[in-house]
Amino acid sequence: MAKTIPVEYDDKRLRQVVQMNAEGVTIPTLLRGFGLADNDHSFLQTRLQALVDEGFATYDARKKKYAATNPMSNLVVARVSKFLNGNTKVVLEIENMDEEFPFLVTMTSNKLKRIRGPKTVRLNERLAVVLNRHSGVELKARFFGKFVGTKNPTIVGHFNRKAEQRFVPYDPGVSSAFKVGEEFSKRVDPRKSFFASIPSTLDPYNPILEIGDQKWDPETGTPIAIILAKKHGIRIRHDKETYAQSRKVMRYRFDNQGRRDLTNERVLVVDPPDAADHDDGFKIEKTDYGFRTLVTIADVAHYVRPGTHMDREARESGFTHYFPDQTFHNFPARFVRHASLIEGYKKPVIYIEQFWNEYGEEIEDAVIGAGIIASQKQMTYQQLEDLINSDDPSVADYKEMGEILIQNMRFERGITFDTEGVDKNAPFAQSLVSTMMMAGNKAIAEFLLYERVPFPSRSHSGSDNLYAFAETKEVLESWGYDVPATITQMNNAHALNDILMEAERRRERVKVEEFIKRNFLQPASYTMEPFSHFGIGAENYTHATSPIRRYVDLLALRGVHTALGNHELGLSDQDIEMMPRTVNNMNYLQNVARRVHLDKLRYFAISDLLRHEGHVMNATIGRFDGHKAEIILGDKGRGLRKTLDVSNLPAPWGISKDGKRLLFKGKMITENCPIKVKLGLVSPNKAEWDVSDVIPASEVKPKRSAVSKYQPSL
């Protein structure tokens, strides 16, 4: 993102900026946005106080932020007014405003990738967009939906339990709560989820949506999260004893435990915008000899003691499970908020302090201990990405050190895996946070190993199947790579990294990674014996930086307390005795979590099909095995797959005489052939759907289009 261009100050624009930023703005942000000097602080504070006095705004003394009492919706209807930079940037004009909006609103071609079908928009076309208001007066838009004929974009959400006429979208980027028309008041049910239509006349200051069909299971209203939790045995509610115990432990004091005072450290806590658990934070600063980094982890071990009911329940659950509309936490939600690293509050932490030279190499052993922090700064990945891209001096050290560490990790680590929840719009911020947390986990594993304290090691090894190794070796050598002679030598992080670094130099890393993942590597797992972790490129590794959402991380933190001599908070004899059994249980629960994730993608994709029931949809032909053909839904089907028995397809579908080819009117139909299908019965609660009227797309006569020939390609 380019640097923020200051706008000229006047009282009217001050009101608009405050009303535009629903999460509130600070005086330093406004000074930069308006291009004012630091000595204008008192003047601006006086004008903001006047807004507070008249009831237009409120002031949060803890966060030092001013927020409008009636903020502008960040989901708005906008018109395409012009194109810039060779049609790679769209300038938008927000509609239905009572007065002129003085700020430039733009959307880049990257944001338009979410448009299904041709990636084009036209002049004067109406779009529903989400405004990013986190960077003060500069507005970037995210595409949300198109207005096509009489069809309006839709959004999914639920009704606020405390204010039943307020509709709250599930989309984490939409921070506004919307009103609903009086005709929908009788349909309000906070237990259920609904589709809502975005009208083209949406008023940004008084947004009213039109409630449509109920989502999920049309008969029972049971959310998909509940259906999947029951299917996979995930705990939905905590025991009464756990709730009572969590209220008690939140009163535990931590200022008399000999902790290091880190309250003057400016720690960044970076999470997705909808995150409820804030486990960790970090700080990077430049020194005379390189860099100093500080990773801080919420010290859940201070609250959750071994052998308590709360501890036993968390060990049985293992993980927090996330769904678009609901989260099943490993601990009670109130405790999760209390243990999280919240801006402005003193919190107990485990810290990892490391020192690096200018090349990103550690120059001395990490310092690990127990501390207290208070001055942490909370932000989203997108906010951190924007700060870094705007060359903000407050994160200059983060950018410089981040580029070095990320590059080093790229060459030192093994396989790169996609992780759930990655913010694709903030790749540098995401990589920086992940790199810092991996460095902290690695340091704790090495610390515990040196202190001879037992801990669950995170292992990611190759296959022990000699046939798999032989096939992998043969293919890699045919590509010109040097492969170790034995499977034992191959099962070493450094051996794999040598192959990947060579692939990096040849610009073949993606191909080589995918092949190794598919043919040789086993899924990562927990073990009691330290073993190489290919995904990180480390000889010793553990999980420690997410103790609120993962039980094994809590065990690692207890191990740290044991090594530090804090035996009251450390591992108990029972913890050590049960650790092998706990590790096996975590591996089982991890496999359950993987199945839940796959089911979640399938169930929610099918639930989105409900509104398209009876419609003709785009699809493609997948694999054909002689009797059954695979149908892959495109566009709004999110790649859902269904296998059809070809014998059940009506003529002119058929099979060739040799049984190897699919035919339509005697012509061969190949894999990936575009087809049209009519969507039949959709059952979201069972994750089932049906199709009929299957026909190749080439057989469908094109309809005349009223669309103008002039469509700038974005």
Can you summarize this structure?
InterPro entries: NA-bd_OB-fold, RNase_II/R, RNR_Ribonuclease. The protein is an alpha+beta fold and 714 residues long. It folds into five domains: 11-68, Arc Repressor Mutant, subunit A, CATH 1.10.10; 75-214, OB fold (Dihydrolipoamide Acetyltransferase, E2P), CATH 2.40.50.140; 231-459 and 534-597, no CATH class; 466-521, no CATH class; 613-699, Nucleic acid-binding proteins (OB fold (Dihydrolipoamide Acetyltransferase, E2P)).
Describe the structure.
The protein is α+β, with helices and mostly antiparallel strands and about 725 residues long. The chain folds into five domains: about 60 residues, Arc Repressor Mutant, subunit A, CATH 1.10.10; about 140 residues, Nucleic acid-binding proteins (OB fold (Dihydrolipoamide Acetyltransferase, E2P), Beta Barrel); about 290 residues, no CATH class; about 55 residues, no CATH class; about 90 residues, OB fold (Dihydrolipoamide Acetyltransferase, E2P). It has 16 helices and 31 strands. The strands form nine sheets. A five-stranded mixed barrel has the order 3-4-5-7-6. Strand 17 and strand 18 form a beta hairpin. Helix 8 crosses helix 10, helix 11 runs antiparallel to helix 14 and helix 13 packs antiparallel against helix 14. It starts with 10 loop residues before the first helix and ends in an 18-residue tail after the last strand.
